[in-house]
Amino acid sequence: MPIIVFASPKGGAGKSTSAVVLASELALRGAEVVIIDADPNRPVSSWAGRPGCPPTLTVLSDVAESSIIDEIEAAAARVPFVIVDLEGTASMTVAYAISRADLVIVPTQGSQLDAAEAVKAIRLIRQQERAFGRRIPYAVLLTRTSSAIRPRTLQHIRDEMARNEVPVLDTQMHEREAFRAIFSFGGALQGLGASQVSGVESAIRNAQAMTAEVVSLLKRTSEKMEALT
Ligand SMILES: Nc1ncnc2c1ncn2[C@@H]1O[C@H](COP(=O)(O)OP(=O)(O)OP(=O)(O)O)[C@@H](O)[C@H]1O
Ligand SMILES: [Mg+2]
C-alpha cells in the first residue's frame, strides 16, 4: 500500500514518464517501490533494463488482463508503494487497475483536446467507483507545461476543472529534456550528468515537488477514507 495508478486514454500524455519519475524519487528516499508495467509496449521495463535503476525499485511486466488485480494485490502486500503504468487506451486492464487504486493520477498536456481526453479517464474512474462501490481518489497532473510562461489556454483548462470540481495537482511536470533523457540513458534524474543534459537540477526540483505533493495527497485521502469507515 498505497497503489498509485497512472491512467489516461490519451497516448503520449506523460503517464510512463511521470510514473518513472515518481517511482524513482520514492525509491531514492529509501522506499521499496514496485512499478507494474501494464503497457504491452513495456516502456518502463525498457527503462529499467538500462543502467542506474534505483536498487529498491522493481519493475514487473508480463501483466495480462486476467492477472493484473492479483499482481497489484500481491505487490501491495509486499512493498509500501505500488505504481501502475497503463497503456494509452481504454481496456479491461485499465478498468481493473483503476478499481484497485488508492490514487489515480491522470496526466494531461495543457490543450483543450488533451483535457477532453482527461475527462474520459475521469468518467471511467467514476464508473469504477459505482461498479466497485468504493471511492477512488484521483487528480489531474498537468504535463509538458512551460516553466517560463503560463499560457491562457492552460489557465482556462484549470478554471474549467475547478468549476467541475476536478482536482488538479499544484505541481506540473514541466517540459524538460531531462525527463526524456532518463529513457535514453536509464536511471534516475540524479544520475544524469549536467554535461549530458541541460536543466537537470530544475527537473530534480520539479520531480521532488511532484513527489511531495503526491505523498501528502495520499496521506490526506487515506485519513479521509479512515474517517468514512
Ligand atoms: N515532462 C516532460 N518533459 C519532456 N518530455 C516529456 C515529458 N513528459 C513526457 N514527455 C515525452 O512525451 C512523450 C510521451 O510521454 P510518455 O511516454 O510518458 O506518455 P504516455 O502517456 O506514457 O504515452 P502512452 O500512452 O503511449 O503510453 C515521450 O516522448 C516523452 O519523452
Ligand atoms: Mg506510456
Automatic annotation (TrEMBL):
Q: Mind telling me what this protein is named?
A: ParA family protein
What the entry lists under InterPro entries is as follows:
DNA_Partitioning_ATPase, VirC1
Which Pfam families did the record assign? VirC1
CDD domains found in the cross-reference section: ParAB_family
Source organism of this protein record: Falsiroseomonas oleicola
Question: What PANTHER family does the annotation carry?
Answer: COBQ_COBB_MIND_PARA NUCLEOTIDE BINDING DOMAIN-CONTAINING PROTEIN (PTHR13696:SF96), P-LOOP CONTAINING NUCLEOSIDE TRIPHOSPHATE HYDROLASE (PTHR13696)
Organism placement in taxonomy: Bacteria, Pseudomonadati, Pseudomonadota, Alphaproteobacteria, Acetobacterales
